[in-house]
Amino acid sequence: MSVERHTAGMLQQIARQQDIVEIAPQGTPQKAAALAYVAEQYGYTYGTAYRTGFKDSLVQVRMHRDPRPEARVREAATITAHPRAGNGGTVPGLGQGSLKPLPEAAGAVAELKDLVTFDVMAMYVGDRKQRVMCYLGCAVVTGLMLYDGTPVGEAVLSGGAVALCLALAFQVGTIRRGRITRRLTAAGFHEVRDDQGARRFLRPGQQLPGHANPFAA
């Protein structure tokens, strides 16, 4: 799907003043962050991100409508400045016909990219329960190979190799999320836990999204 179609599809959701806007560009968190920045200029705020689609090829970002008065002011100013956005006109913060941020938007897009990356990498970190389940799965596979007549050495080596790859993936994910945590904290974000216990980062004065009010406690 082209950049124009991605942008137009998102702006159609925004035009209907939906409480939640879903963004799912193909490719990297950078592209998702660029579109999330545009949505913020229309009075939305970042909610969460996760991978979806075939082989987790899509980065899905959920934006929530910001009820604060300053968000409505920002939305009105954006509509005035970009009356043909989504119809071949300019889009706030991005180059014409691309998802490359303009210099004035680069910093904000970089922060959104960190938020998106932190969330989508949750699947590569996992809590203790998830890790135990993965390792148990490796043991089960090893057992099935033995039952199927695979030599003991080969079965154990195969199961151990998979377990090692999982352990390395979890460690790399933890290290990368640690770096993102330091960058977001330095930028003024504060860390909280949501209802499921997942780690989230919020801007000063922001609260976790609620059911009706995106900033309800």
Describe this structure in words.
There is one protein chain. 52% of the residues lie in helices and 13% in strands. With 217 residues, the protein is of the alpha+beta class. The strands form 2 sheets. Strands 1-3-2 form a 3-stranded antiparallel sheet. The protein has a two-stranded antiparallel ribbon with strand order 4-5. Helix 2 crosses helix 4. It is elongated.
Helix-strand category: alpha+beta
Kindly state the percentage of residues in helix.
40-55%
DSSP summary, beta strand count: 5
What does the average pLDDT come to? 81
What distance separates the N and C termini? 37 Å
Low-confidence stretches: 211-217
Radius of gyration: 21 Å
What's the shape?
elongated
* Helix and strand sequence: HEHEEHHHHEE
Largest sheet: 3 strands, antiparallel
Q: Number of helical segments?
A: 6
Portion in strands: 5-15%
Read across the widest sheet, the strand sequence of neighbours is 1-3-2
Features of this protein?
single chain; 3-stranded antiparallel β-sheet; two-stranded antiparallel ribbon; 52% helix; 6 helices; 217 residues; 5 strands; 13% strand; alpha+beta
What can be said about this structure in brief?
This protein has 217 residues and is α+β, with helices and mostly antiparallel strands.
Task: Chart the SSEs and their pairings.
Blueprint: H1 3-15, E1 20-23, H2 29-41, E2 44-52, E3 58-65, H3 69-81, H4 103-120, H5 128-147, H6 152-186, E4 190-193, E5 199-202
Antiparallel strand pairs: 1-3, 2-3, 4-5
Helix pairs in contact: 2-4, 4-6, 5-6
